[in-house]
Structure formats: C-alpha cells, structure tokens
Specification:
The protein is elongated and about 55 Å long. It has a domain of 49 residues. It has 3 helices and 3 strands, in the order αβββαα. A 3-stranded antiparallel β-sheet has the order 1-2-3. The chain is 44% helix and 14% strand. The termini are far apart.
Length: 81
C-alpha cells in the first residue's frame, strides 16, 4: 500500500475539520465500533464503548443508578457550565 499524497492528506484533514465543526457540544453521537460495540461520543474526551449485553444491563439499571446518584449528590462532582 502506497503512502497517501500531500493533497490526499490535506483533503482528509479538511474533511475531519468539517466533521468536527458539525458536532455540537452536548450532542451525543452513536456508532458501532470495529469490534461490534456501541460507542457513545459527546460525553467527554473519549467515547464510551460497551457491547450490546453490557448496554442492556446498564440501561436496565437506569432507575437504581438515578436513585443512587440523588442519594449521593452532595458527594458527586458537578461539571460547571
């Protein structure tokens, strides 16, 4: 496989910059990873990736997680802004 040309690299950088500008802060984006997991982008610096069964287990616990967070809210760090 040959090295990409300068023009090809330049076009790829422009495409990536355009994609980055299109992302709005606070908007979540979902993708299927190469290994078949579901990745959530937009929560932080890195995506959160779990497999199907893990997402189902986590989502099934949504109410207990919310209750736990409310009970411990005074000890949790909140992001400003």
């Amino acid at each position: 496989m040959s090295e990409p040309s300068y023009e090809e690299l330049k076009a790829k950088v422009a495409e990536l910059e355009k994609q980055a500008q299109g992302r709005k802060k606070g908007v979540l984006d979902f993708k299927v990873s190469e290994k078949g997991g579901v990745s959530v982008y937009g929560l932080g610096r890195f995506p959160v990736t779990l497999y199907y069964e893990q997402w189902i287990r986590l989502l099934d616990q949504a109410n207990p997680i919310r209750e736990f967070m409310e009970e411990n809210k005074s000890r949790l760090k909140m992001k400003e802004g």
